[in-house]
Amino acid sequence: LLRNCGLTDEQAQTRQDHIERLLCPSLDATNESIASELERGGAEPRATSQQHALSRPLKEVWAAFNHGILRQDTTAVSEALVRLDATPANPARAFVKSIAHGWVEFFRGELGRAEQNLLSAQQTLEEGDVRQIVEACGQELLVAGPCFLTLLYAIRGEPERATEQERLADSVAPELFVARGFSELFGTIHGLL
Q1: pLDDT tens digits for range 146-189
Q2: 93/88 Cα distance (integer angstroms)
């Protein structure tokens, strides 16, 4: 569509990239976070080679999953889940897999299964260096579980549990702007319920 608007190919691609980053922030979350940290005079975070090796395939699969969800493309989501299963088994993969399945089940209305997967992800996040690997894949992963659980419990009429999950999502470090934005969006939705 942008190519038919009288823009050069380069201008159209730049605008397309900008639109995709706005609609699917996990694709650029890590780069923006590092860039803003460096601008403030901080040191670039150093991931171990093992963390980098684990996060790269997960980041690619997570980006494909997000695009599928964004476009409501069930085939792309299914393909991303298959690719996720093909990545090396480790706690970070288990976390991403639980979050992805939790999202799908939530949108299908399978709230019991979604709850199980999202709670499992929360437990896995505390293992070893899972948090660092997952953050490299997309900041929204850090708050996705509590955000969806907030809505799930609100739908079920469990306000105490919903509020507890909302607080958990809000406790993410303020410098993680994508995670905070994701949390604020879900907090607003929860307020409307």
Answers
A1: 888 988 998 899 999 988 988 888 787 666 666 666 666 655 66
A2: 7
CA-CA distances (angstroms) from residue 186 to 53, 72, 146, 148, 154? 31, 19, 9, 8, 11
- Please give the Cα distance from 42 to 90 (Å, whole number): 30
Beta strands, E only, 69-150: none
DSSP 72: T
Query: How long is the chain?
Result: 193
Residue 109's H or E segment, with its range, is none
Rounded to two decimals, what is the model's pTM?
Answer: 0.69
Q: How is residue 191 written in tokens?
A: 């307020």
CB count, 10 Å around CB of 43?
A: 7
Residue 69's alpha-carbon distances to 5, 61, 111, 119, 158, in angstroms, are 27, 12, 18, 21, 27
pLDDT-derived band of residue 12, with 50, 70 and 90 as boundaries? confident
User: Following DSSP, what letter does each residue of 13-42 receive, concatenated?
Assistant: HHHHHHHHHHH-GGGTHHHHHHHHHHHTTP
Closest CA to 141 of 24, 21, 18: 24
Q: Which token pair is 9? A: 């190919």
Could you read off the pLDDT of 72-100 as tens digits, one per residue? 899 999 999 999 999 989 999 999 999 99
Q: Which two structure tokens, joined as six digits, stand for 183?
A: 């949390």
